[in-house]
Amino acid sequence: MSEAISNLSRKEQVIRKAAELFKEKGYAAASMRDLAHLLGIEAASLYSHIKSKEEILRSLCFDMAAEFQKSLAEVESKDVTASEKLRNGIIGHIQVMAKDLTASAVFMNEHRHLSQPYLRDFLLMRINYINRFKSIIEQGVKSGEFKDSIDKKLAVMTLFSSLNWMPMWYDPGSAIDPLQLGFQLADMLVNGLKKNA
Amino acid sequence: MSEAISNLSRKEQVIRKAAELFKEKGYAAASMRDLAHLLGIEAASLYSHIKSKEEILRSLCFDMAAEFQKSLAEVESKDVTASEKLRNGIIGHIQVMAKDLTASAVFMNEHRHLSQPYLRDFLLMRINYINRFKSIIEQGVKSGEFKDSIDKKLAVMTLFSSLNWMPMWYDPGSAIDPLQLGFQLADMLVNGLKKNA
DNA sequence: AATTTCAAGTAACGACTGTTAGTTATATAT
DNA sequence: ATATATAACTAACAGTCGTTACTTGAAATT
Q1: pLDDT, tens digit, for every residue of A129-152?
Q2: CA B22 – CA A171 distance, rounded (Å)
Q3: Which residues span the domain enclosing B58?
Q4: Average pLDDT for residues B51-62, to the nearest whole number?
Q5: Same domain, yes or no: A38 and A68
Q6: pLDDT-based confidence at residue B4 (cuts at 50, 70, 90)
Q7: What is the distance in angstroms between the Cα of A165 and the nearest Cα belonging to chain B?
Q8: CB of A102 within 8 A of CB of A19?
Q9: Residue B164 belongs to a domain with what CATH number?
Q10: DSSP 3-state assignment of B195?
Q11: Which of B137, B164, B195 has its CB closest to that of A147?
């Protein structure tokens, strides 16, 4: 038992350091020797803790994916207006990312280096997630809350682009905290920059 | 003379094919042997046309950067309202990307693999470009066109995220053409999703 | 005190990396 | 016909890649 806990703990250290490295240099350009050096050990020693380089990437990508799914499921379960749902979805997504900005960056930028069949599974989960946001937008159009002139694919892709780049520029030490960021981002996408006349 | 033209032409072919490969696999994961294979030649033969792998990346990144700068300079030269300027900037940016979606994707995702001092130069140009968009937003706030409640950094980063991910999902064969896409995107960011009551 | 577990080490493998040196066949220009 | 330029070739380099096999010292458990 204690072996498993302690092993997991060290394995977690390896994975977290790997996330930093993958975020900084990209998965393909990050070598196992780089990672080992950051941890102060030899490259071969990494394999006492992990099965392969890709196992690290898989763990990072799929753990984040599970968090996103969980957050969205909770948002969907509440019976509120589409604007409210969209707003909650945006805030939830941002808060999941804020809990681990490094893993979020890897999730977003490096998932393409997953091999099959993991890549396929990952992309299916992602499409599913996006489509559920798209449904919320469609509900909003149907209920008359949102303009019917907007292209739904464009709207949802714009939304995701904005969300997914956040880990690249957001400074967790900055004045604005993740929750406030979520509020503002939701407001900006729903109401736009323009002052309501 | 004719040597230069013909050489340039073949060099261009190599660079364009490299852009496709870099977009698909990422710069680091794309090998010169992959590229050569796509062109039906041997890896060593590439070096008749280009100096190095990174020269290709440099040429892709800096050529795109020049196009973006040119587009923004023209937008800035016109004396119009801030909303109009922002709108024109967005449309211009999208049209530059649409002219070469592949190079745009490389520009956005792979520039970090530039070595110094090119990386530094690239990032400085990019900061400058972003700050000029930020100025337009600030003008809009000052003139009362835009809300003064918005965080300007958040606004400009959201804008850029939306713009920069477009090459990843936009299908040039789709119903909506780049100009319409620019119109809609500008409208969405300025006016939001919500119907004006 | 003996045994097991953990986290590291050394050495090495086969494959792949970007790149070079030098050569050759083909098309164009003189 | 001769010279030149283009675009390809073969062979090979020094280095790096992820990973395996096996070993070792220290800590925890029995």
Answers
A1: 999 999 999 999 999 999 998 899
A2: 29
A3: 54-191
A4: 98
A5: no
A6: very low
A7: 6
A8: yes
A9: 1.10.357.10
A10: coil
A11: B195
